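JOB MANIFEST
job_type = single_chain_structure
chain_count = 1
residues = 367
[input]
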Amino acid sequence: MMTKMMGVPRNHDAMLRSRNARARTTTSGAPSALSRRERGGKSSLLSTPPSSIGMGGSKPKTTTGRRRDDSDDTEENPSGGETQTRRTFVLLASASVASASETARADAKENNIFDEFPDEERNGDEASCGVKSLIVGPGLGEFESVSKALLASAEEGGATIEIKSGTYKERIIVNKKNVRLIGLSEDVVVEWRTSMPYESVLEVTSENVSVENVKFTHASKSVANNFGAFVKEGGSLMLNNVSITSETGSGLATEGGSIDAENVKIYKCKNHGVSAFGNQLEEPKSGRVTLENVAISNCGGDGILLRGGVEVDSRDVKIDNCAGFGIEAFENVQGAMKACKISKCKKGNVGGDNDNYDGNGVSIELV
């Protein structure tokens, strides 16, 4: 008996405890929750007993950034004996990715700058890409001229073109409707000097065009229809805080178009300050000029020349030091000119035959 007892290993009790622990692990199919807490000290998605996932248990809590050990990856389901092997983790991760994708798509839709434009404009070329607001200036990504910005604007019109400080030597032709040209400072100058005839610095053939805070300078070959800013029949132009000078012709003109000018200065024009005619070929006559707080000075012809059935409506117009009449009207001009102040015009204040044309004519109120 002594010999048998001496043959028992000294670590016999430790070996027994280890064998019993292995037996318990084999019977349960997974380490106990206590042993997992003792091992990791933290709970994780995969440290939750499998029976609580998809079997009526509460939703497991997730902890990001924790590295899973091998025992978590191969945990078995004690009720069915099937291995989970990251299945739950992958499913929940996929759901999270799907949710994030939906959120990203919603954000992209909310911030999509093309939402206001038709789909076909998104696929258009650079000249008709549907861009509505454009910048002209020397900066990176800005247009070097107003004409190039107009070319890049939408074909159906509606562009706002903002012009930075500087002198732009170009001729601007606006043939798209609802276009706004806005100078961003007091020293935005558009200048056009050419030996070619019939070239205005600004020509408008479309409807609802407006220009603000721009100074126009013009010189071209001196023939008929020599105008600084010209509105053709069917076009309409609104001017605000604009100045115009023409070294070779009249400053502002229309033939059958529409002009609304407010806070405008027209000066040093070789011919008339304003030339407004009705359309020349068709009946009824078209053409309209509205002037408010307009100053005209130092012109070689009349301050304002009206003829051909054009309609005029003006208030607070000042005309000074012109070589012709202050206002001259022919051929059934209609409308009223109120609070006109005329001084130092060589041929007189008012001229023309309009006063005796069919008993109708323009009413001119001098102050």
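[summary]
Residues 87-110 form the longest helix (24 residues).
The radius of gyration is 42 Å.
exit_status = 0
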